[in-house]
Amino acid sequence: MSTVSRPRSQPTMTKTPPSETTILLVEDEQDLLELLRYNLVREGYQVETAGTGEDGLKRVRQMGRDLDLVLLDLMLPGIDGLEVCRTLKGRETTASVPVVMLTAKGEEADIVRGLELGADDYITKPFSPRVLMARIGAVLRRAEKDGRSQPSSVVEAGPIAIDQDRHEVTVSGEPTVLTATEFKLLALLMSRAGRVYTRQQIIESIHEGYAAVTDRSVDVQVVSLRRKLGDAGRLIETVRGVGYRLRD
Amino acid sequence: MPDVLSANPAAFANSASLPLVGLLAGSLITLGVMVWIISRYRKWLRDLGRSANRLAQGDLSTRVQSSGPPHVAALADTLNQMASQLGDRLSEVVRQRNELGTILSSMDEGVLAIDADLRIISMNRAAAVLLRLDPAKAIDQPIDRVLCDPVIRDYLSRPLETGQGMQGEVTLVREPQEDGAAGPEAQGVASQPAAGPRIIEAQSALLRDAAGDRLGTVLVLHDVSQLRRLESIRQDFVANVSHELRTPISAVKAASETLLDELEFADERPPDLETQKNFLGIINRQAERLQSIVEDLLSLARIEQGKREDSLVLSDAPLSPMVAAAVETVQAKADAKGISIRTRCETGLMALFNRMLLEQALINLIDNAVKYSPEHTQVDVRVWREGGEVKLQVADQGRGIEPAHLPRLFERFYRTDKARSRAVGGTGLGLSIVKHIAEAHGGRVHVESQLGQGSRFTLVIQPA
User: If we measure between CA atoms, which residue out of B58, B419, B111 comes closest to residue A55?
Assistant: First the structure.
């Protein structure tokens, strides 16, 4: 899985501590809760914890605008993680708070559902605390960028540049001709590099829901898009059992 | 004739007419003989005809009397021979047909055949049950009228169009027949009790005659519901086991990596001894948890294997030493919580049991009682004979179990309270092991519980 093959992030402890960033950690396993809290605090985050879904939602309400990210275990007694995610993403006040799911490998169906409910990223157990910290950092940076920058019509990722207004794609400066569907697919993946999109999310986004499209046809579009992008096509990663993402 | 001439002198008077009379008489006699011969032949032919008729009507035991002149007798013999051969052939055909019928009807697989006009020509008992058809009414009916499942109809009709057989898995949904909507379908549908959806492995093939013309389709249905159900139980179990193992592994990995990081960056940040001790404690605790889970899984597997191979040794023995040993094992833990264990066991009570396993089951029950009871309460262990059974009961004064949990309490990895179970070091397998041990003894285990008043687990086994 991608979590394993990821290169080790550089020692994150040397970075400036994002002390004003507050993370809510929802985990029922006491030992894991303690370990995660220790690692997050060492990174310089403010950490609030909850041991159940009910408690998690209560903490979210209490924290209001101070909440910057939720690290959420999916297997919780009572209200489970997916339900917490649905509630968070369904409320206007909390919909924009990034959610990172903690889940067991082999529970791809839950991951897919979580992503479709709006979760921003996931990490599978057993996990490496370093990788988890890097993922949380990336999600926070993305969220910050989204909140700050004006929506620009030109987005770049590695050698690929996409101009939504002019409907143009260049790879290392060379124009590349894509079909309308491939263009929408690339625009979606590039809109949030690093974020995994499920096949269903891709279908809804590029076909606006009215065409009868299968998972398989998404795969076909991706293969064709990769081919047209040449070497840069490798930036589009398959996340087995879940969907696709653009490497950031 | 000379006698006639000599005995009748009057005849001399008319001697001129003598030759005429002789001729007439001769003719008459000849006629008589011919009539006699013809009537004899008619009788033989009538007999032959009657016998042939009876043969034609299927009475193959008929035999013709081989009397009469040689050529008639030969004909009769041929007819008899034919009859006997026909009889042999026919009984051979009947025998083969019955054999085929018996084989088909005793098959677990459903077999159904249709002709090129999509009419059912034959089906066995299993097919009738699976498709809920009444053979008496469904035979000769077009499939559109008697088969409600469109996929099954497809399996039958498609090969006639494409020339290709079909194979795959079909789910038969057993919905109750709707009146009216079913219309003419209602006829020929057997009133088989619905047993939920069945998963069927279906295979259809085209029937061709010697000339290669399409005669119809034969469909074979194999009910794999039970197989799929067992598969899904096994998959659930594997998923549960891997989840249960993953949690401690996650903690061990996260704790050890965190500790390594601490050491790696010791120059920038002096490692805190208290934190290190804490994380090593986590690793130790979670490793112990892994060990208990693996040990419990192994004992479950051993009990199941013993049950399967019937290799479990049960012997007649007194119960009280075993009960005392079980209580002794848990005593220290009980003392630590100030819980007193009261044991009452009929002296000399014998039962048929496997000492090691039954002791383990009893330990699991007493250990649970101690774990989930508040301090300074009492746990009662009672063993007695009731009717034709021996009962071993463990009762506590704990907080009791909610009724919703009771039916699933003995399932593997089922926990009423995950956090509490982990806090006391439970693997989620203890009660499942008790249940398996009870079953290995041909017995059972059950629970009664009331919130706030405690729980009572009873193991029931056979007396000696």
Answer: B419
Per-residue pLDDT tens digits for A46-96: 999 999 999 999 999 998 888 999 999 988 877 889 999 999 998 888 888
* CB neighbours of residue A121 within 10 Å: 22
Is B64:B53 a contact under the CB 8 Å cutoff? no
Residue A99's nearest CA partner among A75, A123, A73, A121 is: A121
Q: Is the pLDDT of residue B76 over 90?
A: no
Let me know: does A205 contact A198? Beta carbons within 8 Å.
no
Residue B400: how many other CB atoms lie within 10 Å: 17
* Per-residue pLDDT, B419: 65
Q: Is B287 left (phi over 0), alpha (psi -120 to 50) or beta?
A: alpha
- Among the three residues A148, A173, A192, which one is the final residue of a domain in this structure? A148
CATH code of the region B312-464: 3.30.565.10
pLDDT tens figures, A133-188? 999 999 998 888 776 655 567 888 888 888 888 888 888 888 888 888 888 888 88
Using a CB–CB cut-off of 8 Å, the residues of A that contact B are 11, 13-14, 28-32, 34-36, 38-39, 51, 75, 77, 104-106, 125-130
Residue B192's pLDDT band (boundaries 50, 70, 90)? very low
Which pTM was predicted? Answer: 0.62
Order of all β-strands in the sheet with A197-198: A197-198, A243-246, A236-239
Question: Smallest Cβ distance to B282: which of A31, A104, A126?
Answer: A31
Q: Compare all CA atoms of chain B with the CA of A78 and give the residue at the minimum distance.
A: B417
Query: Is the domain of A81 the same as that of A132?
Result: yes
The domain in which residue A201 lies consists of 154-246
ipTM of the complex: 0.71
